[in-house]
Write a structure and sequence with these properties.
By secondary structure, the chain is an alpha/beta fold. It has helices spanning about 25-35, 65-75, 90-105, 130-135, 145-155, 160-170, 215-230, 235-250, and strands spanning about 10-20, 40-50, 55-60, 80-85, 110, 140-145, 180, 190-195, 200-205. It is about 35% helix and about 20% strand. The protein is globular, with a radius of gyration of 17 Å. It binds pyridoxal-5'-phosphate.
């Protein structure tokens, strides 16, 4: 479903994700990013996390059918130009999401295979990893793992730039159309990501900006890519747009609370709104 470029109304995008009470990651990050990328954002909440800048102290899952109903409600009335997943929490929620996304042909479909927070707090039940591999990733237009998620999903340990190609191949074998392996955690001067469609590799690099305040960075990148797809861009163009957005947001990040602050979703909002 691609929104016609002639429309006077903003394109629409849906996040299927967990709520972050601290507002830096999850569905909140996705909705702020959609706004900053001039896309009307919608949400199907999967779980409510209890978290602040110090970490996640608990989460409460919604019933799988409640997640499916939220997706169906917005798809059948408003229309979804592109969708993304974040925290899917359990195998049962994944099964419901996969069934609904397939039945309603929700596409493009970006999968951010969230497993844990930056503090290392789990956001996925241990039994859900198999479902992520078997029922969610094969539906993806694009899957966007970081190096920790690559290791969990494929067993490939990425230590060098060359290992990233092997990781991308191993992930592509799970069935998505495109894979973006994010090398941000490698100790190089540049943050290099590898985009792979099963045939050729595109290397995307950006200067590394050193800050501990990167809470929500993975969600924000995937949401900006989803916004680009909702606007009708192809995958490489949407990923380039996403990289540009996350670079600005990381440079615009700020401390908040006593722990890890969020990336700045409003870095492109230059004017102070009038009263
Ligand atoms: N909370 C929720 C609901 C999330 O979806 C995510 C990541 O996707 C996080 C927390 C973790 O964000 P980070 O890894 O940036 O701390």
């Amino acid at each position: 479903m691609t929104v016609p470029p002639t429309s006077n109304y903003p394109p629409t995008a849906l996040t299927i994700a967990g709520s972050d009470s601290g507002g830096g990651a999850g569905a909140q990050a996705d909705l702020k990013t959609f706004l900053a990328c001039h896309v009307h954002g919608m949400s199907a909440i999967t779980a409510v996390t209890v978290q602040n800048s110090l970490g996640v102290t608990g989460f409460y899952e919604l019933a799988p059918h409640a997640v499916a109903e939220q997706i169906e409600s917005v798809v059948t009335d408003i229309g979804v130009g592109a969708a993304k997943t974040g925290m899917l929490a359990s195998a049962a929620i994944m099964a419901a999401v996969a069934q609904t996304v397939q039945r309603l042909r929700v596409y493009p479909f970006v999968v951010d295979p969230v497993a844990a927070s930056q503090h290392g707090d789990p956001l996925l039940r241990p039994d859900a990893l198999d479902a992520l591999r078997a029922v969610i990733i094969p539906l993806a237009t694009l899957v966007t793992p970081n190096l920790g998620e690559v290791k969990l999903l494929t067993g490939v340990e990425v230590r060098t730039r060359a290992d990233m190609d092997d990781a991308a191949r191993a992930l592509h074998a799970l069935g998505p159309q495109w894979v973006l392996v994010k090398g941000g955690h490698l100790a190089d001067a540049e943050a290099v990501d590898v985009l792979f469609d099963g045939t050729s590799f595109i290397e995307l690099s950006a200067p590394r900006f050193d800050t501990p305040h990167t809470h929500g960075s993975g969600d924000t990148l995937a949401a900006a890519i989803t916004a680009g797809l909702a606007r009708g861009l192809d995958v490489p163009a949407a990923v380039r747009l996403g990289k540009k957005f996350i670079s600005g947001a990381v440079q615009g990040s700020f401390p908040l609370g006593a722990g890890l602050g969020p990336v700045g979703h409003f870095w492109r909002v230059k004017e102070w709104p009038d009263d």
